[in-house]
Amino acid sequence: MSKKLFSSIVPFVIVIVLALPTFSESLQSEYTRYQATVVRVIDGDTLEVASLPSIAPTERVRLLGIDTPEKNDLYGTEATLYTESLLTVGSTIYIEIDVRARDSFGRYLSYVFLPDGRMVNLMLVEAGLAKLYTEAPNVRYTDEFQDALKTAQQTCRGIWSDLDHCKVGYELTVEVQLESELVIITNVGKHSVNMSGWTIRSVVGDQKDILPAGTVLEPGETLVVVSGGNPCPLNAKCHLWNGTGRSNIWNNSGDTAELWDTQGRLVLSRVGVK
C-alpha cells in the first residue's frame, strides 16, 4: 500500500473508532449493549459511569427518549431518588446506543438497562416521573415510551396526578419515614374519609398493602401504618402492614409511597424521607 493511500484511510478509521462507545460489550440483545459501572446519579435522567475499560476515567450518560423534572422542580427530587434507587453506586448496568451516540455536551445518549433486562428510561416514564423527549434519529423505543406515558397519565402517577381526571377531592397528607418504616396519613379536611380497601404501595419494591374494612379517618385524625417489625406508636391509630408489620417495606436509599382509593385513583404520591 502506498503512503499516499494509507494516509487517506487512517483519518477515516480514527473517526470511526472514537465515535463508538468504549464500554465492554455484554448482555446480548437485538442491539449491542455495553457494560458499565455506576459512579453517581446526577439527577433523574443523567448519571456518571465508569467504562469497562474506557479511554476516559468516567463518562456522563443522558437517558434517551425522556426528560425528568429538574431537582428544584416539582417531582424533581422524587425522580432523582427513584433513579438512585435503581442505579446504586458501584452497580453494573448496560448501555445501548441509538443512531446518534452523543449530544452537544459530549454526553452519551443511551438507553440504560439493569442486569435483569429492565430499561431505566422506561421505568421512569411508567412511574410518572418523566415526560417524553424524543428527537430523530434516536427514536428506537418511541412506541414503548408512548404506551407507558399513556398508562401513567391514565393512572395519575407522579407528575400526572394534577390532571383533571385525577383530582379526587380528599384532603389528606402523607409522610413516609423510610428508616423508621412508618407511613403517617392525616385527614386535614373537614369531613371523614372512609379508607376501607384502599391500597398503600411502595414504588421501588412494588409492595402493596390493603387497608382493612372500617378504616375511617375523622377530621384531624392520623393513621400510622407500621412495618419493619416496629411497634405501634403510643396513643396512635395504627395499622400493621399486611396484618403483621414484620416485613421491611421501604427502601432506605429512596422510595415513594402511593395511596390509591377503591376506584383505582391515585390519591397521593409522596417521596420518603430518612
State the main characteristics:
elongated, disordered N terminus, Immunoglobulin-like, 2 domains, alpha+beta, 274 residues, 34% strand, OB fold (Dihydrolipoamide Acetyltransferase, E2P), 4-stranded mixed β-sheet, 18 strands, 4 helices
What does this structure look like?
- By secondary structure, the protein is an alpha+beta fold.
- The protein has 2 domains: 33-160, OB fold (Dihydrolipoamide Acetyltransferase, E2P); 164-271, Immunoglobulin-like (Sandwich).
- The strands form 5 sheets. Strands 2-3-4-7-6 form a 5-stranded mixed barrel. Strands 9-10-15-16 form a 4-stranded mixed beta sheet, with no helix packed on it. It has a 4-stranded antiparallel beta sheet with strand order 13-12-17-18, covered by helices on one side.
- Mean pLDDT is 86; it is low at 1-20.
- It is built from 4 helices and 18 strands.
